[in-house]
Amino acid sequence: MKETAIVWYRNDLRVQDHQSLYLASCNHQKVIAYYTFDPAHYQTTSWGFKKTEKYRAQFLIETVDALQTELEALNITLVIGQKSPQEELPGLIKKWDVATIYLQKEWTSEEQNTLREVQKNCDESVVFSEHYDQFLFHPNDIPFEIEQLPEVFTQFRKQCEAKASVRPLILKAQCMPKENVLSERYSTPSLNDLGLEASSQDSRTAFPFEGGTQAGKQRMQYYGWESNKLSFYKKTRNGLLGKDYSSKYSTWLANGSLSPRMIYWDLMDYERNVEKNQSTYWLFFELAWRDYFKFISLKHQDRIFYLGGIKGRDYDWKNDSQLVNQWIQGQTSEPFVNANMLELNHTGWMSNRGRQNVASYLTKEMHVDWRIGAAYFEAMLLDYDVHSNYGNWMYVAGVGNDPRDRKFNIPLQSQRYDAQGAYQKKWLQTTLFS
Ligand SMILES: Cc1cc2nc3c(=O)[nH]c(=O)nc-3n(C[C@H](O)[C@H](O)[C@H](O)COP(=O)(O)OP(=O)(O)OC[C@H]3O[C@@H](n4cnc5c(N)ncnc54)[C@H](O)[C@@H]3O)c2cc1C
Hints:
It contains 17 helices and five strands. It is α/β, with parallel strands linked by helices. Helix 10 packs across helix 15. Flavin-adenine dinucleotide is lined by residues 237, 246-250, 253-254, 283, 286-287, 289-290, 293, 351-352, 355-356, 359, 377, 381, 383-385, 388-389, 392-393, 396.
């Protein structure tokens, strides 16, 4: 195979540990990379929220800028579009006489529909070479058929720990000859171009997130090797304040600028060279949760978006805009919920403890359709990931993988995790006066 290839980037925005880029660079004389800011991702959805709000959009712009620079070091041009792939890609394939498109395999309906539309507009001879590249455990390596995947996380984790292994990092992509570079250098859009308002980062943010693999790797370097915070992760992970109560890796993982394998193998090095303890194990444990929700969505497909969830449960859900607005604006009867919602609204971030509580409040106290909460998170979260988001929302709403269908006692949670009220003070007081 020696023709031109396109590497179509979506949620795999890195150069390192990247199956498609590696294969394209080994098998083809000419390689072009492509990413588009698809307008569909910036529209207002039927839930009344933007699909992507300014926080994640800004992070994405930074990520794509960084990706462009990293690809340039390999003499590969990143074509940056602003139209839908179905509108743009078939024309590019024709223009450059492209034989093969390499891409990360996605299975959720929007991505599948887009791919089908692209394929419909291409010559039948064009090969679409798809690769699972977002998992810790490759789907071919887990000890279950997807249809037999356990509905309980512990069973999944124990079997994977006993019988599967994480693959080594994928080899570095080949550097292409200089002639591979296209004459045009493409630019990323601004937030305004995407129909979003630019704003400066809130000084109260839990973490000054910056897009791109390099920034993600710096965080890994700091959280593990420099500060050893990783060695205390299990004790701090339920925190609410400050940069270091948890890893903050989710933002880079969500758009693929870090891969879970990169984190895993760094973790193994850390365990060998610094310390192996319950905390280092717990980071693996949480990465396994991330994988689990991906496998759950692979198994249940579109049912993760159904009101009854994967359990097909028939609860009496409300769609009451007054309740939804109270929740969104942080005007409920629970200050702990309000503080968390304000943090989300001002920064695009919320801790895992916060997410569990606000989701429980919306679904188990207000009885509001859980998909409204999930759609709001989809808009706002810096680290939105379709599988983790819908999987966790179903879990908390009682239509997913929680065998016990629990409800959070929010005043008790607030006492336990914010005993002095410092977190609530930070968001409730300053927001009142800002
Ligand atoms: C209602 C709700 C919605 C959520 N939506 C998302 C989402 O859209 N994207 C997202 O990445 N996470 C989501 N989570 C999971 C979790 O809250 C975040 O992954 C975590 O808070 C990110 O912070 P961190 O990277 O510092 O995590 P750490 O505690 O440092 O964990 C390390 C990594 O493990 C993974 N992880 C940890 N907890 C979970 C979990 N419960 N489920 C899946 N993976 C996990 C993440 O990749 C995370 O980066 C959601 C949780 C809830 C309750």
